[in-house]
Amino acid sequence: MVPGLLAFGGNEKFPNGIIGHEVMPNPPCLLRRFGPSSSMNLTRTAYGTWSGGRYMHFGEMLDEDRYLGAIQHAYEKGIRTFMTADAYGMGEADTMLGKALNGMPRDSYCLIGAIGHDFYNGEREGSKGFPRFTDARLRDASGFESYAKMAVERSLERCGLDKFDLLMLHNPDVKGYSDATVWDALAKVKASGLTERLGLAPGPANGYTLDVLNSFEKFGELIDWAMIILNPLEPWPGQLVLSGAAKYDIDLITRVVDYGGLFHDDVRPGHPFPERDHRKFRPAGWVENGGAKMDEMRPIAKKYGVTMLQLSCLWNLSQSPVKSVIPTMIQEPGEKSKTIHQKIEELASMPVDVVFTKDEILQLAAIGNNKGCMMLKGANAANESEITADRWPLTPELKSVADRWGINAHADLAYLH
Q1: pTM of the prediction?
Q2: pLDDT tens per residue across span 299-334
Q3: How many C-beta atoms lie closer than 10 Å to residue 141's C-beta?
């Protein structure tokens, strides 16, 4: 067993373990009935409004026509889940997604919204962005419900629609993971008919392992979906929450499936990242190291006749309870780079009948093993006292969470190199 990979043991929900060859991916389109109407659940492939470089700096920034065209191309090729977050462009991403999907039958796609950062009342704090709506400087718990309802209504208004299929709590602070008043507020938003489902979207950086598991334990009955970072070059720490999601019947959508664009297979050593590209802040050598590991993975891609992006997506989907993948679609600079349309087509054409075996899942994870490669966000044993928006101490409650899930909070979540 690769250190840190705790996802494959059995539990009462999956007594034989949550292994790839025992879990078939979802079919491309899922509908669940809710009374007289129907609501589309998330599909295997999804597209996020952070793609295209307009609202998060990855690759070239598409102009409006190309940005809208990319979303429409995804729809035409069969990608039918679209995610936005109200903080992207302070609402502009909502508006752009609404424009792109205007005229498409509402029952032909799944719409995910996300709220969390209060850009209506809060002041932007540099690279940290806007404060979370749960920040005590903005309001106390008595104001959570009214804020959440207002934020969802405005986001939907910008999209030109009246309901999300899934609403996610975006980049929560410590209150968002642990405070019942936050989830009571979201439950009331759902009860008002503004969303069919609720979800948890940690971030923006990696971590929050114990916080996510704590949320599953406390609010699992309310949480339908959760979003995590997961790909064959980053099995840690995302795999540590898989068994918890399975136990509480929470489906997972995985982001950063492309690993900063490497799995798109057009980023090479010496790649000219644009000036404001987020990837320029990654450690030196990450492209070279990641590329060398990807070369070790290529025989499995060749065996199944899939691209490297498809390999990454299928590795995720071969592990229950991962049900959807949402890689970032990036237009890299240079004439030899793939177009964003080509990348969308790769994602859309991913085979539905490929499921990796347990040995293949473990082999790919062993190649990409990244345990201890970074300081994780959220609850952290290395943080003794200070509480910030994205980092806080390891409390006795969270230590107990770690113990229940067989996680050594000091060794399994530590920054080692």
Answers
A1: 0.91
A2: 999 999 999 999 999 999 999 999 999 999 999 999
A3: 15
